[in-house]
Design a protein that fits this description.
mainly beta; 0% helix; seven-stranded mixed β-sheet; four-stranded antiparallel β-sheet
Length: 126
C-alpha cells in the first residue's frame, strides 16, 4: 500500500496562489494515476484533478479548469497541484489519492482510488 502525505496548504487571500504537494512512498509510483479531491465543511468530497501514470493526460473539474494545474515529478515521487486565482469557494480540505487500477469506476469518483492522504487545509479569504 502506497502511503501519501500532502503539504502546502494555508491561508491566502482571494486571487492568490498556493501549491500543494503530495509525497508518495514506494518504488512503483510511476505505475499509478493520481488525483486531488477536496471536501468543504458540510459537503461531500469532490473531484478536483487527475493525472495519468505517465503524466500525459490530465483531467479537471469544471470549477477549477484554467486556474489549477496538476503535475507529477517521478524522480521525487510527488504530485503537485498549482492553484492560481483562488476563490473563497475553493476553501476545503484537499486530499491526494492514488488509483491502483483495480476499480472500473469513473475517474471522478472516490471508489476509483485505493489510497488517500490525510489532507491539507486550504482557506481562501475574501
Amino acid at each position: 500500500q502506497v502511503q501519501l502525505v500532502e503539504s502546502g496548504g494555508g491561508l491566502v487571500q482571494a486571487g492568490g496562489s498556493l501549491k500543494l504537494s503530495c509525497a508518495a512512498s514506494g518504488p512503483t509510483f510511476d505505475n499509478y494515476a493520481m488525483a486531488w479531491f477536496r471536501q468543504a465543511p458540510g459537503k461531500e468530497r469532490e473531484f478536483v484533478a487527475r493525472i495519468s501514470s505517465a503524466g500525459r493526460n490530465t483531467y479537471y473539474a469544471d470549477s477549477v479548469k484554467g486556474r489549477f494545474t496538476i503535475s507529477r515529478a517521478s524522480a521525487k515521487n510527488t504530485v503537485t497541484l498549482q492553484m492560481n486565482g483562488l476563490k473563497p469557494e475553493d476553501t476545503a480540505l484537499y486530499y491526494c489519492a492514488l488509483d491502483y487500477g483495480r476499480s472500473t469506476g469513473t475517474y471522478f469518483t472516490l471508489a476509483k482510488y485505493g489510497s488517500w492522504g490525510q489532507g491539507t487545509q486550504v482557506t481562501v479569504s475574501s
